[in-house]
Structure formats: C-alpha cells, structure tokens
Amino acid sequence: EADIYQTPRYLVIGTGKKITLECSQTMGHDKMYWYQQDPGMELHLIHYSYGVNSTEKGDLSSESTVSRIRTEHFPLTLESARPSHTSQYLCASSPGTSDTDTQYFGPGTRLTVL
Amino acid sequence: GQNIDQPTEMTATEGAIVQINCTYQTSGFNGLFWYQQHAGEAPTFLSYNVLDGLEEKGRFSSFLSRSKGYSYLLLKELQMKDSASYLCAVWDSNYQLIWGAGTKLIIKP
Question: How large is the average pLDDT for residues A28-42?
Fold first, then answer.
C-alpha cells in the first residue's frame, strides 16, 4: 500500500491568489496523477507524470500547472485562482511497472475560492 | 464517447447483501477497478478484474463479463462502515482510466 500525502487538506482563498497544492509519496512510484472531483461526480484527470521531468495534461482542461523535479513530489499550481476552481483535488500514484497499475490516492485537498 | 454507468444511490440493511452494477462503453478494455470512497476521503482500492468471472476477497466479490461490458461488486454481511461511495473505473485501449460517477451506498440498521 502506498503512502501518499497531500497538503493542505482544506484551503479557502480569495480570487486571484496563486496557490500550490502539495503531493508527496514515499513508495518510489514512477507514475503520479492529479484528479479533480466534484461531489457525486466522476474523477477527472487534469495532469499526470510518468517520471522525473515528465508531465502531461489530462482530459480535463485546466488552468493549473505541475512539475516533477523529484520522484516523490508532484505539486500542482494555480497561478490565479477563480471560483470555478472550487473542488476536491486528489493526488494519486502508481508503481509504473505496468500500463494497468493500481492507483493509490492521497487524502485530497478541498479548495474553496471565494 | 466513453461512458460508465452506475446507479447513483442504493440503500441496504445491515447484515444483508447488496450488488452494485457497473456497465461500460469504452474504446477497448484492459481491466476494471472497484474503489471505495468514504465521504470526504480518498478512494481506496478494492478489486481489479481483467478476465471474466468472479473474484472473491473476504466479504467483497467482483464479477466481470467483458462480452456484456458489465461488472458488479457484491458486498456481503453489510456493516455500517460499508456506507460509502463505490467507484467503477475502466482502462480503455489507450490505457486511459475512465471513471464512473460512483454509487452512494447507504446502510440502515
């Protein structure tokens, strides 16, 4: 089982602020993901990484950016937060040994933009 | 388009059995996951099916029929802690993971 951490757990900020959501995993997993999930809705992939210096956009258009400088760290940044960014953000990782790896999730960050 | 259908909400009684269905229409198939997600928490892995048939894991079992694009999660001897949402997700032919919206399971005493 993966150990994956997200901070902060809850964040309330004003419109226009720049924020970074942190995600770290201690299992040495190569693949990492960011999902957005609204209540009662499916998870939407916004960014993913298959390893250091590798980042890709997912299927959901997003105004966020990510970086992967270290294997264990995959932060997500919103340059200018808007009320439409209010959502739950889930980080996940998987070993990278297979195309169909199980993904393990962090506890999530619930973001509210006023 | 790609689609996964699950009932939005189900109610069951403590100690009983419940079956949560998932049907999928995806471009290809490379495996199906079931995850459990308690309110406000992260999804946790329950099961993975890639071949037809039933996989049993304690009180939980998962079934897959690839020809019918159908899976179900069977929960036996329901406990109050089983109250959660259950998410179905499918790997398509491009190894994109397609998620259902989840089924909220309410357990009553």
Answer: 93
